[in-house]
Write a structure and sequence with these properties.
The structure holds 2 protein chains of 2 kinds.
Chain A lengths: L3 H6 L1 H20 L1 H6 L1 H20 L3 H18 L7 H19 L10 H21 L12 H12 L3 E10 L9 H11 E8 L5 E3 L4 H13 L3 E10 L3 H7 L7 E3 L2 H10 L4 H19 L1 H18 L5 H24 L10 H21 L2 E3 L1 H4 L2 H12 L3 E6 L4 E3 H22 L3 H6 L6 E10 L2 E8 L6 H10 L5 H6 L2 H6 L21 H11 L3 E7 L3 E9 L3 E10 L2 E6 L3 E8 L5 E6 L2 E6 L2 E6 L1 H8 L7 H9 L3 E9 L2 E7 L1 E12 L10 E6 L5 E5 L1 H8 L6 H13 L2 E7 L5 E5 L3 E7 L5 E3 L2 E6 L2 E6 L17 E6 L6 E5 L1 E8 L13 E7 L2 E6 L1 H23 L1
Parallel strand pairs in A: 7-9, 14-23, 18-20, 25-34, 29-31
Antiparallel strand pairs in A: 1-4, 1-5, 2-3, 2-4, 6-8, 9-10, 10-12, 11-12, 13-14, 13-21, 15-19, 16-17, 17-18, 19-20, 21-22, 22-23, 24-25, 24-32, 26-30, 27-28, 28-29, 30-31, 33-34
Helix pairs in contact in A: 2-4, 2-6, 4-5, 4-14, 5-6, 5-7, 6-7, 9-10, 15-16, 18-19, 19-24
Chain B lengths: L1 E7 L2 E6 L3 E5 L14 E7 L2 E7 H4 L10 E5 L8 E6 L1 E7 L14 H6 E7 L2 E6 L1 H12 L2 H17 L1
Parallel strand pairs in B: 2-10, 5-7
Antiparallel strand pairs in B: 1-2, 1-8, 3-6, 4-5, 6-7, 9-10
Classes of the chains: A alpha+beta, B alpha+beta.
Chain lengths: 880, 163
Amino acid sequence: MSIKIDTSLFLDDFDAESRVHIEKIEKAFLDTATLADDPTLISDVFRAAHSLKGTAGFFSFKKIVALAHELESVFSQIKEGKLTVDDEIADIALQSVDCLKDLVDHVQADDMIEIDGLVNALKNYLKKEVDAADDDAGEINIPFDYNCPDTNKMLKKAFRHGHKIYYVSIGFNRSLGKYYKNPKGMIDSILSIGTIVEVIVNGNFGKIIRQEDTTVLADEIISALSEYDTTTLELLVTSVLAFDLFSIAIEVDKRYIRLVPKKNIFGDEESAEKPEAAKAVSVQKDQQKTVLHKTEAEHEQIYTQALARKNNFSIRLDISVINGLMDLANEMILTRNQLLSAVSGYERSIVGLKPVLHDMNRLSSEIQEKVMLTRMQPISVIFDKFPRIIRDTAKMINKDIEVEIFGGEVTLDKYLLDSLADPITQIVKNSADHGLESAERRAELGKPKKGKITLNAYMHDGFALIEVTDDGAGINTEALKLKSIERGIVTQEELETMPKSDILALILAPGISTAKQVTSLSGRGVGMDIVKTNIEKLNGSIEIDSEINKGTTIRLKMPLTLSVIRTLIVTIDSVQYAVPEMNVERIVRIWRAMPSRRIERLNNSLVLILNGRIIPVVTMDELDAKATRRALPSIETLLERINGRAVNKCLVLKAGGKSFAFLIDDAVETEQTLVKPLPKYLKKCLCYSSVTVLGNGNAIAVLDAEGILRLMGIEATPQSIVDEEIEKEKKEEKQILIFKCSGMEYFAIEINEIFRIEVVDPEHIQEIGNGQFINIAGKTIRVVRPENYAPVKKRRYTAEKLYLLTLKKSVSPIGLLVAKVLDKVAGNFEFDDKQLYSDFIFGTSRFNEKILIFLNPAAIVEDVEKDKQANKVKKEGGVA
Amino acid sequence: MRGLSLLSEGELFTVDVTLVQKIIRNMAFTPVPAAPPAVVGIANIKGGIVTVLSLAELLGRKRNMQAVNAVVFKSFTDGNDQMGLLVDHPGDLIDIEENEILPPPLSEEGGEKYCISGMAEVKGKLYRIINIDEIISRFNDGNESSINTNTITQGGLDNEEKI
């Protein structure tokens, strides 16, 4: 029976696991500077090689085992401080990594993959470096007296002939013959490869033998040994052989052999010849080593912890499992909603139903959110590959390039990440090959010899931006223009009116390359075209900034395919839309009583004048007409519609430094929504960036502020106007009254909205219908609790004295009932309407570290009037 | 071929039933202004976004307000591009003999000219066979500006090859 079938079941696991190990090694050696300084990393790398060897061994992948074994040996030397990390070993290690990857790719057919070269390279490196390292090693304590003239003379002579000096110390037990059955045999083999300078038998109490005649020496040693049953034999030997070979040649385990450093023997007189710097280095190395040894146990602990962490918090999953989970979570939300509506009538009759429903509501939403997050991965998954790619590329094109990476923590949907890897690679290769100049050219320009490529990722305005920047030659726009005309992509006339950004974008057109020669990497003008195509397939766009001799930035702007963003849900003509909250500057309510904010006709368009700012107004009707190439609704119709409403609401949306006001019917709520890519059937709309599914299961479109700006051709407000506005805003100081109601919240209202402040006795407030009224100086005043109009709690008053703020602009007298009037202040208040939202407040503002809720009296008045009208209608209906 | 019969504006159509994922009666959807006329809205079906198109509009007719039932088709790409056709009435399964399929009528105009791949007579009734692939690809071609048409078609081909 074969066990092959059994192991093959685990091949996938092996594949996944071994790749993790290999990548770990690769990553570590790409940054040798950090690796050299970080013992934990070295330890990690060592373990990676070791585990790889282990798992491969289980499957009997001999080649992987062999290579991993050599790597492990080298790493263990580094770990013990016997070796330092340098470029040479980094090269070998990386080559081995490549080879290992190949081997893992073709585990079942690794005959074709050659590993002997690498194994030998690693072995040789180990040998050479250990020798070198031992030459540098600190003093070792051995019992020979080097200063004895004879010995010293012999040693000096040996050194001059390139010999190394070894101290061999072996225990002998005649009865057991533990290490050497025949001491003579060992002495003979030592003598065949070197000279024995001095011998000590039985340590400090024993005999010192110094004999130049080798035959006599051997006899003397044997006879000395024969005096003891158990003893030690210590030899000072010189030999040309390197440490490893010496050990093999005399068939004595390395444990019993020490290489005696030069300075150990000759003291300071010789080492003084060493340059100071070198000495400093060696001292430093010694210190490093001690640090290393001291903390070894610590590292072990850290490693175990890290391992435990990893085992606990990271698992590999098939993407289909996650997709399945996502579907189920969504399905659950839908079912929840059905349940909620089915039992909505029984909330009171079934005890305890409401909290259970509430909990289920929250839990199912959370589950959906968490499941969504599982598909997100940090962009470092892609970015981390680049140090390696750039290193290899740099070697290939003979340039010196350093890489800087920022924003690796930005998380994106796995699908998007996978599709981005190739385009980014192409761009980076382009930057390395064409962007960066040769070292000579850089020197001429006075730039640092090392070229720099920076990768950066960040989120902005609902897009993920990925930038590849080089500090190279920049794009030669003149050459680009010529080439583009030559290829017939643009005409001379077109070019004259083209903005620089559009000219730079020509480099993305097929067949355009400003490279003078085609290299192995690029230059045919195909690469960027493919990049463009791929990015556009993903709905992204490419922006290019470039300056001659300063460098080039290529920016990929990707709409978030699958991400959770906060959106404001708005309704327009009873259709819901989501607006990313990051685009929402503010929500504005416009009504006639407030002249500082109004919608006006300016030339042939509508503008919102908001505290002196002029903001273009966009309506859904216009978007619809523009996108479907129908006639735009006339300004008159729009104005008529706007004027027909008592209150207009709009969102001031901002994107890319521009703002516009978007008319809405209502803002419903803010919701944490899962954003999904826009179906291809909707791409022509241009005003949506994606679609999303709301908590209630409805699919709605997400408005794209930037797309709307582009679709409507809105330009940034000229700076002069902006400046004026800022001036105006500054001058517009408001006088406000700060007061408290039944809760702890601070409310504020503009003083010129208030008619009088009256002191009232709560006892005198009468309840009539669903309103409260009070008689003051013969006038019946409707009493309104501000708490009803703000998202705060209302409590019952127990005080004997309350205040009533009567409002100016009301049809019938209305007063706000407050507990305490605190202060009257003047100032310039910026409203924040993102945190708290209600139709009846402007928003919140800070004053003396307190948060003030700014009431909108006009809206309250309007509401009260509406209520009055409703009551009237009801009464009439009742009579009829 | 096994077909699903559809009734749209009193006319009978049929589609290859193997392409159909499900039939949803009284389909609820969210209208999407600014979208091409054939798009009536989007809907969430099992967590996926389905774009609902009007069969009548696709065939170059006015949208029929009686069309409330949707035939949702299987996804052809890995994206978020599932599509549903809004029809008056999804009907029964019919068996069509491949060799009895007649060529499409020559007189057809507009969208119909391309979206009908043939005709078949089953039990005395004449059905027009709708070519879903053609509808989707024509829809998308018409959607892109002339510059991008190339790349998009290429993309489409790539996808088909993958399948």
